[in-house]
């Protein structure tokens, strides 16, 4: 019988955001976005513990006052993986899932599927796992805000890019484009290693932190998802999220 891995969720939460400052504290159906995301992660019942890890006392106080668990970052961090690495350094865990703070509708099936890979035959080869979803609209494929991923035959990531990859030189070849969805499930050691390794040129060029794992030889298992990613990056996204929530609530 396979031993159960001790699994937690971490939600990195910066107050500032270049495209939409303060978005995590914006109202979404009577609660801040970050609290909606925290509650969605807890309600999956897949984690031993869920934490929000933040540099903001406002976000920290919001989560704690609602009965949730939060951790204040000690250092300044440029990305979510670094923030998580600091937070989990002294925790007795096997797997940590990075849940995006601006995705309050992350679903149970996606999270369950990304965790399941650590119990399958090739689990020993996997340093971290993430999600990808097919995209077909040309505007989505060419949009640099949508990170694309290409994989090998076993669904291990070969590369991530903001460009349209693969490039279709031969238009008769039928290829599928995959958008990277930003849920990561890390082995603890993988995220600790990430924080110690300097950024290299490919990551610096693309501004995609997943590339650092590939550049240093880590293996990323990609899991297929058919549910849409509903992130809040702009005020328009927030309005759309409010409409979605209103439809879902009785």
From TrEMBL:
The record's annotation in Gene3D superfamilies points to: Spore Coat Polysaccharide Biosynthesis Protein SpsA, Chain A
Which SUPFAM superfamilies does UniProt cross-reference here? Answer: Nucleotide-diphospho-sugar transferases
Q: What is its EC number?
A: 2.7.7.38
* UniProt keyword terms in alphabetical order: Cytoplasm, Lipopolysaccharide biosynthesis, Nucleotidyltransferase, Transferase
TM region positions: none
Q: Which Pfam families match?
A: CTP_transf_3
**Main function:** Activates KDO (a required 8-carbon sugar) for incorporation into bacterial lipopolysaccharide in Gram-negative bacteria.
The family assignment reads:
Belongs to the KdsB family.
Classification via PANTHER family: 3-DEOXY-MANNO-OCTULOSONATE CYTIDYLYLTRANSFERASE, 3-DEOXY-MANNO-OCTULOSONATE CYTIDYLYLTRANSFERASE, MITOCHONDRIAL
Please identify the protein, giving its name as recorded.
Answer: 3-deoxy-manno-octulosonate cytidylyltransferase
**Gene name for this UniProt entry:** kdsB
């Amino acid at each position: 019988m396979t031993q159960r891995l001790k699994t937690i969720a971490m939600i990195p939460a910066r107050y500032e955001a270049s495209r939409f400052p303060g978005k995590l504290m914006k109202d979404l159906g009577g609660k801040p976005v970050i609290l909606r995301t925290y509650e969605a992660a807890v309600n999956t019942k897949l984690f031993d513990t869920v934490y929000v890890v933040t540099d903001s006392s406002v976000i920290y106080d919001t989560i704690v006052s609602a009965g949730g668990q939060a951790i204040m970052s000690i250092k300044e961090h440029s990305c979510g993986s670094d923030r998580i690495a600091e937070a989990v350094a002294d925790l007795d865990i096997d797997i940590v899932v990075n849940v995006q703070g601006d995705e309050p509708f992350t679903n149970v099936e996606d999270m369950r599927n990304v965790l399941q890979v650590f119990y399958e035959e090739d689990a020993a080869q996997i340093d971290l796992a993430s999600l990808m979803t097919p995209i077909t609209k040309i505007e989505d494929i060419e949009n640099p805000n949508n990170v694309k991923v290409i994989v090998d035959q076993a669904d291990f990531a070969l590369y991530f890019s903001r460009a349209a990859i693969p490039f279709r030189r031969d238009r008769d070849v039928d290829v599928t484009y995959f958008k990277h969805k930003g849920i990561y499930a890390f082995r603890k050691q993988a995220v600790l290693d990430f924080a110690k390794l300097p950024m290299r040129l490919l990551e610096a060029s693309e501004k995609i932190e997943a590339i650092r794992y590939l550049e240093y030889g880590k293996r990323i298992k990609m899991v297929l998802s058919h549910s849409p990613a509903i992130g809040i990056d702009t005020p328009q996204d927030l309005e759309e999220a409010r409409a979605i929530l209103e439809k879902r609530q009785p």
